[in-house]
Amino acid sequence: MTLDPRLQGKLWISRVTLRPRIVWKGSQEPSNTEIGYLHQLAHEECFIANSIRTDVVIG
User: Which of 14, 28, 42, 43 has its CB 3.0 to 4.6 Å from that of 4, i.e. a possible disulfide?
Assistant: First the structure.
């Protein structure tokens, strides 16, 4: 989380960095294309990303 000053010196959360840990089960991991697709779906449904007006990044 990054805090930056706004007008009148008040701080606001300007950036949230998520560091999810993914564990694949089974004998076959998804391809990079499948992972990209799953990431996009997760981002579109993410409560945090859809509830705030700040940058949300995966780091």
Answer: 14
